[in-house]
């Protein structure tokens, strides 16, 4: 009897633990919304505190994760090259289907993030929209210029959110569009890139250097250049 009661309590704990585990989010640090030299206001988006590998995904460029598929050493708000504060995962409730690096003999230049149902994608940092266009590879995609040679790209959007056009200022956490399957995509997901370099070449965003979004240090409250 005692044993049965114990099992019951354990099962209950397990069930409530699974069913009611709240999704933790982090507040964007003040630097994102108040000290960036971009006049656009920040949106309501708050980055998730954790990132998980998708349960059934085959991640060839695997990241270290714990027994619950949680990516280890994940920083929800990072500082890129000591210059730009951003979130490396600009979407809520998404899991990672592919990381940055070698994949099928080629370099995968960003993160693939999937959510079901599909989720809104947000600006990872304040900036100016340089590209809001459609291409065969990335489908409906957005490139944001965050200043100081730092850019982000968002591929395969279902469609563009209102106010997303080339030349527009955009604040941290403002909606860009729901993740989709436009362009060369095998399923609904966001392809997200962090890019650095000189945009003003004939190749524009395709002349920039792709960086691993998960490689940057956590933002600790100090950013130069704002
Ligand atoms: Zn991708």
UniProtKB/TrEMBL annotation:
Ranges of residues in domain M23ase beta-sheet core: 107-196
Parts forming coiled coils: none
An annotated Gene Ontology molecular function: metalloendopeptidase activity
Pfam families found in the cross-reference section: Peptidase_M23
InterPro entries: Cell_wall_metabolism_enzyme, Dup_hybrid_motif, M23ase_b-sheet_dom
Keyword Signal among UniProt keywords: yes
DNA damage keyword on record: no
Signal peptide interval: 1-19
Keyword field: Signal
Protein's name according to its UniProt entry: M23 family peptidase
Organism: Henriciella mobilis
């Amino acid at each position: 009897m005692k044993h049965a009661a114990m099992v019951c309590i354990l099962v209950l704990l397990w069930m409530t633990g699974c069913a009611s585990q709240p999704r933790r989010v982090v507040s964007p640090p003040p630097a994102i919304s108040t000290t960036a030299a971009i006049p656009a206001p920040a949106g309501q988006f708050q980055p998730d505190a954790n990132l998980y590998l998708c349960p059934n995904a085959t991640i060839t460029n695997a990241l270290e994760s714990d027994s619950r598929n949680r990516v280890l050493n994940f920083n929800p708000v990072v500082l890129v090259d000591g210059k730009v504060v951003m979130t490396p995962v600009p979407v809520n409730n998404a899991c990672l289907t592919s990381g940055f690096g070698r994949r099928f003999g080629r370099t995968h230049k960003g993160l693939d993030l999937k959510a079901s149902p599909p989720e809104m994608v947000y600006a990872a940092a304040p900036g100016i929209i340089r590209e809001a266009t459609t291409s065969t590879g990335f489908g409906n995609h957005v490139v944001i210029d965050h200043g100081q040679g730092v850019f982000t790209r968002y591929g395969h959007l279902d469609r563009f959110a209102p106010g997303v056009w080339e030349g527009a200022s955009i604040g941290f956490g403002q909606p860009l569009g729901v993740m989709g399957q436009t362009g060369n995509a095998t399923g609904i997901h966001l392809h997200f890139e962090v890019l650095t370099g000189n945009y003003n070449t004939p190749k524009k965003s395709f002349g920039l250097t792709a960086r691993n979004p998960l490689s940057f240090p956590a933002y600790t409250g100090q950013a130069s250049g704002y």
